[in-house]
Design brief:
about 0% strand, about 325 residues, mainly alpha, 2 domains, 17 helices, globular
C-alpha cells in the first residue's frame, strides 16, 4: 500500500517506481532502451521495436483485426515497422529531446509529432505507436493503453495523443517545480536530482504510475490529471527570450564589424557575416522548438569551434561583445528557477 499522506507528486512517483520494480523488475525495458541507443541502423531499431511489441503489445495482436493480420504475416509486419522507423527518423531530429522543454502548442511541433504517430499507428495500432515512439525518444514520447486513455479522457486519435502528451507535460512540470521550490534548486538541477533518485527518466516514472494505477488497478494516491497547475517558476520560453536578446547583441556587433572597410579589404567580412548569420539562425531554430538544453549544447560547441574562436578575436579587437562575454549570463538565466 502507498502512504496516503504523500502530498508531493515526486514522492508519489518515487513510491510508484518502487512498487513497479518490485512487481516487474523492468529488466527487459532497460535492455531494450540500451539496445536502441547503441543501434545505428533503421533495420536494427525496427527489429528491436518488433521484438518489444510482440511481447508488450500483445492484446493488439490477439484482439484487433489488423493486429491478427499482422501476426499472421510477421515478415511483412517487420518490414512495415522498419519502414516506419525510416520515415520518422528525419522528423524526430527536428524535435527537441525532452517533452518538458518543447512547446507542445507550436503548430510545427504538433504537425511533426502527429506525422510520427500516424506513421506507426497504421502499422501497430495506437498503443503500439506510443511504445515504438517512446523507444526511439524516451524523454519525449509517453506510452499509453486503453485504461490510461480512459483515465486521461482521450481517444486513440493522433490529436488526442498530442493532448495526452500535453497533460503529461503539465504533470512533469509540476513534479519538477515542486521539487525545485521545496529544495531551492534551479529547474534543470531539480530534474537531474529527481531522475538520479528514481534511476529512470521522469516520463518513465509517470508511465509507471499510469500503468500501476490505471492498468493494474493498484491503489496509489490520485493525481488530478485534468487540472494540474504548475507552481510559479521562470518558464523556459521566458528564459529563451532573454537569451535571444543577448545573442542578438553579439550578432549585431558582428554584423557591424563585417561592414567595416578593413574587414572587406582583407576578405574577413564574409567569414564574420556568415558566422553571425549562422549563430542567429540556429539560435532561433532552438528557440522556436522551445529547446533550452539543445541551445545550450549548441552554444557550447560554438565556443569550442575554431571558426567561432577566430571570429571572436576580431570582435574583441573591435570592442564588440563576443559569445564568450555573454555565455556566463546565459548560463545564469538557464539555471534560474
Amino acid at each position: 500500500m502507498v502512504d496516503a499522506n504523500f502530498t508531493r507528486l515526486y514522492e508519489v512517483l518515487k513510491q510508484a517506481h518502487d512498487i513497479f520494480l518490485a512487481e516487474t523488475g523492468d529488466v527487459v525495458y532497460e535492455m531494450v532502451i540500451k539496445a536502441i541507443n547503441e543501434s545505428h541502423s533503421d533495420e536494427t531499431k525496427g527489429i528491436i521495436i518488433f521484438t518489444f511489441l510482440i511481447n508488450w503489445n500483445r492484446p493488439w495482436y490477439e484482439q484487433n483485426p489488423k493486429g491478427k493480420s499482422a501476426f499472421k504475416n510477421l515478415g511483412g509486419h517487420l518490414r512495415d515497422l522498419v519502414e516506419a522507423v525510416r520515415r520518422v527518423n528525419p522528423l524526430l531530429k527536428r524535435l527537441g529531446e525532452r517533452l518538458i522543454d518543447i512547446d507542445i502548442n507550436n503548430p510545427e511541433i504538433i504537425s511533426i509529432m502527429t506525422s510520427c504517430f500516424n506513421a506507426f499507428v497504421n502499422v501497430c495500432g495506437p498503443t503500439g505507436a506510443s511504445k515504438a515512439l517512446h523507444l526511439l525518444k524516451p524523454d519525449l514520447f509517453v506510452m499509453w493503453d486503453d485504461n490510461i486513455r480512459n483515465a486521461y479522457r482521450v481517444s486513440t486519435s493522433s490529436e488526442d495523443y498530442i493532448e495526452f502528451l500535453r497533460k503529461t507535460k503539465r504533470i512533469a512540470e509540476q513534479v519538477v517545480s515542486e521539487y525545485a521550490k521545496d529544495r531551492g534548486l534551479p529547474l534543470n538541477k531539480a530534474l537531474e536530482e529527481i531522475e538520479r533518485q528514481l534511476r529512470v527518466s521522469l516520463l518513465k516514472a509517470i508511465d509507471e504510475y499510469n500503468y500501476l494505477r490505471f492498468t493494474k488497478r493498484i491503489s496509489l494516491p490520485p493525481i488530478d490529471i485534468q487540472h494540474v497547475k504548475v507552481e510559479e517558476v521562470t518558464s523556459t520560453k521566458e528564459k529563451l527570450q532573454k537569451i535571444r536578446t543577448l545573442i542578438k547583441e553579439v550578432v549585431d556587433g558582428a554584423m557591424e564589424v563585417a561592414e567595416q572597410q578593413w574587414a572587406k579589404s582583407t576578405g574577413i567580412s564574409g567569414l564574420i557575416e556568415s558566422s553571425a548569420r549562422k549563430l542567429w539562425k540556429v539560435t532561433n531554430e532552438y528557440i522556436d522548438r522551445n529547446d533550452l538544453q539543445g541551445l545550450l549544447k549548441y552554444l557550447e560547441r560554438t565556443l569550442r569551434d575554431a571558426t567561432g574562436r577566430k571570429v571572436a578575436e576580431y570582435l574583441r579587437a573591435c570592442g564588440k561583445k563576443r559569445l564568450e562575454d555573454v555565455y556566463p549570463q546565459i548560463k545564469r538565466i538557464a539555471n534560474d528557477c
